[in-house]
Write a structure and sequence with these properties.
By secondary structure, this protein is mainly beta. The chain contains 2 helices and 57 strands. Strands 29, 31, 32, 33, 35 and 36 form a 6-stranded mixed beta sheet that branches. A 4-stranded antiparallel beta sheet has the order 1-2-3-4, with no helix packed on it.
Length: about 750
Amino acid sequence: MGTEPLSVAVGNFNLKNNGYPDLAVANWDTNTVGVLLGKGDGTFQAQVTYPVGTSPRSVAVADFNGDGYPDLAVANEGSNTVSVLLGNGDGTFQAAVTYPVGTKPVFVAVGKFNLENNGYPDLAVANYEDVPGDVSVLVGNGDGTFKAAVTYEVGTDPFSVAVGDFNGDGYPDLAVANFGSNTVSVLVGNGDGTFKAQATFGVGAEPVSVAVGKFNLENGYPDLVVANYGDATGDVSVLLGNGDGTFKAAVTYDTGDEPYSVAVGDFNGDGNPDLAVANFGAHNVSVLLGNGDGTFQPQAIFGAGINPSSVAMGDFNGDGKTDLAVANFGDAPGDVSILLNTSNPGSAIVTSPSAYSTLTGGSSATFTWSAGSSATAYWLDVGTAEYGNTIYQSGTLSNTVLSLPVSGLPTNGIPVYATLYTIDSNNGTKVHNEYTYTAFNAQAGAAVMASPTGGSTLTGSSVTFTWSAATPPTGVTATYWLDVGTAEYGNTILQSGTLSTTSQTVSGLPTNGSAVYATLYTIFSNGVKVYNEYTYTAFNASSVVPAVMQSPTQGSTLTTNATTFTWNAGTNVSTYWLDVGNVAGGNQYYQSGSIPIQAATVYVPPNGLTVYVTLYSLAGGLKFHNSYTYTAANGGKISSPTPGTTLTGSSVTFTWSAGSASAYQLYFGSTYGGSDLGQSGTLTATTSYAASGLPTNGNPIYVTLLSEISGNWVQTYYSYVEASSSAPSIQLERDRNRGSTSTALPLDSYGSNF
């Protein structure tokens, strides 16, 4: 613990892991707030500290940004600020953000003062040295930030603030203990974040702490209790409320010396609010049991550390009884005392579900308890507020009933409170233990669509939907179900049925730009079924402008048989596909497949014939196309010897048609396009060439006729069989083995047979 701890508050900071009550402590001398995570058995882990302002004097707990995790607000006396630390839900906190307030802020309280507009948590801060005395109100924005402070005048040296609805209008009001004027100021709230002028009520000397409770259960009006630090004998003042924002005259009850902090709770389980008072000068804690009629029994004293300065409440060991945490300002090093409640040893204790656990059974749970030693009956209430029964009220149960199923539990992760009453009809007593749980949060653990992003435009008529895996609590499993339709929650396009995977491909989606709705259900094994719905815009086929060929120009004559076709991007086109052939829509020469680029080089035979080109634009699973025709380059064509035949010897005259060429070359090779067996050189004004020295081994020989057209050389490939002195007998033997005569085929412009 840091030195000189002045304030302690209780919160469930580690909700992601266990939900046990934890402690936050304002360490005045080290300018830190310390966080001690509870173990659920009444003990705590070592503190982790977070820097705040100078001389932090008070700490309060609330969820300021609406993420379901408790955050901290700290009043910094030495720097005239309030620090806000947002919780991460795992017991850690983000760095402090500070907001200016008045001079020497010594106390911070939380309330929802702006209910008319939003109901976000707001802050009220007591500024001890402002003249005249005042409190600062910081209205929350709901995202963890706050508006600039607005001040309201109170008494002299305000030291503590409490929040309650004192006039029954549903809006929170303020009660302020004024150290210097020996009064309590009451400021009635307007419900819009503002307050009316103060009304004051006399109390004892140097009041330093004020708390709210309903001490007179006969009317249920909020009442006040004030710790009077300066009264000689040490006491608290109790002011019973009239229900209209006014209070009766204070009645005092003895405590220890220099009472410094007061808290209200039911410590003996009889349903009546009691008081716990930290006595700074007496180094102990006073507990005054309430009688339920606005009066209190004499104090019982419990030891604490040196100079206890703050007292807070929580069920630290999960037995359903309210325990105390006390910050000891004078202990060195600073520390917190934990006082575990040992009242009503014979009362029944809930053993399952464990206190502070998450109710993993979904909307139902079975509550089991131990037998009370003197119980003649039991009674179980379950609700969403402390001591509430809006979910379940069992009525009187026989003392032989030690478990009870409860259904209708919420599944949205909110707190659930179970109050187990132990009734002893022999002596007329009825005591209770209360337990806090977290409802199963189906939505928090539900699967969430990852792709496509909700609100986006779908990419086509077939889309794969992918989602995150559900995160159910231990012992619970999850499956999925996907519906897709053209109306909210509809399934006219797809109804998947139960899925164990986290993706599903959906086809048959509209392509007209209409709305598409996807509903992703998460089905938990505890019977809870929740969903997330997503809205999309269908792919709009009418928005697609297909790509257009840029080069070569439509209808032109190609000047080479290696032609590069280029096109523009089009609009809303994802990829392209190019087919080139010798018939309309054909792909005999080229088929690109789906390509992302806007160009392709194609080898077209230079035969002077029509070339058919189809340019497809692919978008949304659809194909759009534009068609083009060209004339292939008209190169020479060998007419003799007939392509594919066997040459007659080593000297052969090759003759060809002129085509549109101005010059020619002949290559002779042992491979396609090769010239290792000879070449003619450039030939002009002739369409024949007498080749000599050709091999006569009976092997294949490849001849390439090159034609120069407009400065470009185009090639046509042919194949023959070399002459051979033994060719007849060898060839016949080969034919005999094959059962047919040999035929060599002409080659296309790719250098391969077709």
